[in-house]
Amino acid sequence: METTGLDSLCHRCFDSAPPVANQKVSLLVFQSKAAVLRDRLSTLFVDREFFMRSGTTMRFVKVSARLQRRVAFGVAIMLALWTVTGAAVLASQNRLDAQQAVLAKEEQHVAAEQARVAAYRGSINELTHDLEARQTRLEKMHAGSFGPLPDRAAIDANAIRPAQSATKVSALSPDTAPLIRLEARQRAFAAQLGALADRRADSADSAIRKLGLNPRQMLRVGGAQGGPLIPASFGKNDAEFSRLARKLAHMQALEQLLAAIPTSKPAAITTMTSNFGYRSDPFTGEGAMHSGIDFRGAAGTSILAASGGKVTFAGVKGGYGNCLEITHRGGIVTRYAHLSAFAVRSGVAVTRGQRIAAMGSTGRSTGTHLHFEVRLNGRAVDPSKFLRANPDVFAVQAAAQSRSRSDV
What we know:
Layout: H1 2-16, H2 19-44, E1 48-54, E2 57-63, H3 65-146, H4 152-159, H5 164-172, H6 177-210, H7 215-219, H8 239-260, E3 272-274, E4 277-280, E5 287-290, E6 293-296, E7 302-304, E8 309-316, E9 322-327, E10 332-337, E11 339-342, E12 349-350, E13 355-359, E14 369-376, E15 379-381, H9 384-387, H10 391-407
Antiparallel strand pairs: 1-2, 3-6, 4-5, 6-14, 7-13, 8-9, 8-12, 9-10, 10-14, 11-13, 14-15
């Protein structure tokens, strides 16, 4: 109670006293509390006496307050050391756990990077395979129908100027540099092939027009369809090589169409007895339309296919007598009439110059001869414009025929 009164008095004095006085009051309060603590500790550590009895012997043991304080102090020190050590061990364990967590995260990151690198290398391997396969197709195509390769120096000159994006990719990933150069070289190569295909298509188109035919209309006929020289596509979503494939398809369709036009003589004879157009009918003497050309020859003379195609009729056809028809590309049909015998049957494919029949005088005929017709989409046209074409047309057609045979 006295301490409480003293504290109350000190607090009142502290509130009203000047700073120096307040410090003195604080010191008095501290000393007072320290004295109270000493008093309480002195009540805990007092001299203690213990009597120990062993049989008839009585022993007296005295434990002084000083020794108790030392033991208590030692225990307190040990507890403090144990606490500090435990805290240090716990902190160390926490740091170790944190480090292990960081290491585990790093391992995951490394594993993810390794997987990404593996996927990247896998994509490079796949790209390498695609480019090599495309190169093989280009080489096979060239060897098949284009003849000598374009100037290698020109290709290399274009190849050393790849796109800016490709250059950046090559700089960031050196292992892709050979692929970038290979693809650039292929693109330059494809550009030259495209130009060559355009020239050949234009040449075939011009030759067909010189024969009095319209290639666009003829290509719309189902039998005139062509296809790329390479069965497989050049690549996925590659517009440049897709354009090349379309150019090659157009070129091939025109060349196959030109090669199929019947420009070869249907027999090994040159004597014509009647031309295409209006004439005096040999039986009635009246004016009549003659839809073909008549070739005179000996009985049994070999009749030859004027161009390659498929035999679509072999039999008797009214005034034509024994008649044979061959369907070619572009809606063209050749008709061979007044035959004495057939060498082929309907449904078989024939080649240009192949023996297909023998000359005779069947049907509405005044003597042994061959009636030769050319029909375009069911309409008779003058065969002489095909048989008497300019030499340059024959040269272009011969080249187209040679390439068409190599494509088969």
